[in-house]
Amino acid sequence: MFYDISADADVVSRYAPEKPYMSIRDIALKAEVFIAETDHVLDYPRSSLPNTKLIGGSSVSEAKPLSGEIKKFVEDSAMGVAVVSFGGGEIYVPQEIQTKMIAAFKKLNLNVVWKFDWASDQTNKILALKWIPQNDLLGHPKTKVFVSHCGKNGQYEALYHGVPILCLPIYGDQLYNSKRIAVKEFGLYADIRDVTPENLTQLIQQVADDSKYRTNIQKASQIFKELYKIPSKEAAFWFDHVMKYGGSYMRSSGQQMPLHQFLLLDVIAYLSTILVVSLLAFYKILRLCINRFKKTKVKTA
Description:
8 strands, Rossmann fold, 301 residues, six-stranded parallel beta sheet
């Protein structure tokens, strides 16, 4: 996921108007620690500086016991449940896609807990609610598959609890997240606009039933928990640590360099100039030698 810090250029004047103006880029250059909400378990490995701490999944936590209507519905589901959610906010779902999803869910051998405001045609197989305790549901042993748009928080909650995912991305980084889930074999992805009800049923059932996906994501879950424990506590540790000791010992001197020096563009330009001058000199000398050879040959003839 990529973030343009220029979008928050007025952050100082907005939150600390009494302070001297400083651009968000200048603040970033002076920062002693960076908390990046990503990691090498869910995302791909990439290089970073010592003061960049990769801590993905700040929203995850141990699952709390379910209660009320949801608890009864989940525990009464003999074959388990599929949790379906497309984020914390309300989204508009076209009627044709609603109809497609409902038709697909009814054909599953799983029951479905769906975060969606759907009051009509409630069935014993589908529990649709405006809000669901997503993290707690994903941590329940009867949850077999997570059907999601594959946003940042949802994918980390699924990773933490070891639940395979069927990704139905809508926009933005969800497309990248979905393909990465498939590459790592934590689940599959599809385009909700193109897939038929039959295909959707098959995909959900495949992710739920194929032990490959559950095995892979549960192994990743164990690695993630061993590395990060509770990510929010890990982030809090680094904030406390830097406030107590400072973070200058982790900062690279390269962070203060102009970009052209950091990329060695000045060195490359200097060496390129020497190379070009040397080639030109060689070319001139070669031409002089050839011309002299030609003149000598003409005189001899």
